[in-house]
Amino acid sequence: MAQYEAVIGLEVHVELKTDTKIFCHSSTEFGADPNQHVCPVCLGLPGVLPVVNKKVVEYAIKAGLALNCRIAPFSKFDRKNYYYPDLPKNYQISQYDLPIAEHGCLEINVHGAGKRVGITRLHMEEDAGKLVHQGTISSTPFSLVDYNRTGVPLIEIVSEPDMRSADEAVAYLEKLKAIIQYTGVSDCKMQEGSLRCDANISVRPAGQAELGTKTEIKNMNSFKALHKAVNYEIARQIKLLESGGKVVQETRTWDEARGETLSMRSKEEAHDYRYFPDPDLPPLVIDRAWVEAIKAGLPELPDARRQRLVTAYGLPEYDAMVLTSSRELADYYEECVQIYNNPKLVSNWVMGELARMMNAGGQDIQEVRISPAQLARLLQLLDEGTISGRIARTVLEEMYNTGKDAGKVIEEQGLVQISDTGLIEKVVDEVIAANPKSVEDYRAGKEKAIAFLVGQVMKSTRGKANPGLVNELLKGKLNK
């Protein structure tokens, strides 16, 4: 594979967080019964006219500015003509030659190396409906169609073919998702289809300037799927070229169960869609003062916030990068630090124990039942010596599962740390008497032996003994 270079570009579709659709008043709410959020406009019935939702244009401008794009003073909507069962009008209203935003970029970091990825364009369009397949897309005996999503507003963000690996593609999508979430124009819930991407992939001999024939992998809605699909497709194309074959320009789908990409159809060119300006929608003339007002209202974006966490809180670059990967996570962290002013310790608990439980439960920070104030109180109790670090982890787990305050959990389960010297000394004497070999090892210079003895004391006290006092008493008795 070192003899070849992959060339990757992503087309990312982002569902905008508006109350109504792009050209009608039907709701965009997720999760309704099939075909409930529809009307004559989004179903394309005869005699109806679309009217553009101003909030969609505002959100597109905001996203474009956050991605360092130039906002076009003049743009228009076009009809993209094709037939598919989930497209009731047999055309999609999109933007072709005059998009709302162009020539942007964002910075990614992969394995410690920074890289700038160009953004060709950002344009507005309406979403199609949803086909519900009985099985996989390539083997289903029949499909059902739900038009609720038809007409939901999207922005499509097209990158330059600047990525060279699956890792870079995932880093780009993660960064793009974070920026969009920070602006508030979309929730980017990949599991609900609010953010999904198509990957254009080609390979060429290393050092060659000319691009190879590309394939497009459609509709991936997880970072894991993107990484696997890109790696598979790169390997497939190289194997095909090495065997004397040719890569065919086509659209493919990622089959998660089989772990491979499968051919769907030949890839269309722009002329196949017969684009022309939509006669029912006038061109958009964007007032520069409006653009400047939107720009002035942009929130602090991930890179700026990451740098602030490093300088204001003294966090390592890695901690700041993880914490700012989502706006909600960064908000949670900073709210906790406002109450408990130990930025690094808060970072350790959020990125450590809390993240472990979130990953195990498949939850995002906004779904966690522990508030920043509750986590701050737990850390205060740890500082005060009410509980040990080991008990704190047990308490946090119970808080995560029940939403109870730390104090309540400690009270209910009798977890207050034991700091009574007499009680601990008695247990220490019992442990020394029961483990003569470890005592002998320690006195022979094997420092690690004391860790075992400390562990036995903690085990005997169910983790409630003050660890500092345990160490002090053990060393005092063993060094006599």
What are the salient characteristics of this protein?
nine-stranded mixed sheet; 480 residues; alpha+beta; 3 domains; Arc Repressor Mutant, subunit A; elongated; 40% helix
Structure description:
α2 (166-183) packs antiparallel against α3 (223-242) and α12 (421-434) crosses α15. With 480 residues, this protein is an alpha+beta fold. It contains 15 helices and 16 strands. The model has no long low-confidence stretch (mean pLDDT 91). α3 (223-242) links the parallel β12 and β13. The chain has a 9-stranded mixed sheet. The N and C termini lie far apart (65 Å).
> What is the residue-mean pLDDT, rounded to a whole number?
91
Give start-end ranges of low-pLDDT stretches: none
Query: What distance lies between the first and last C-alpha atoms, to the nearest angstrom?
Result: 65 Å
The biggest beta sheet is recorded as: 9 strands, mixed
Helical content class: 25-40%
Number of extended strands: 16
Structural class: alpha+beta
Strand order of the largest sheet: 2-6-7-10-1-11-12-13-14
Number of helices: 15
Task: Domain count, please report it.
Answer: 3
Shape: elongated
> What fraction strand?
15-25%
Radius of gyration, taken over Cα atoms and rounded to an integer in Å: 29 Å
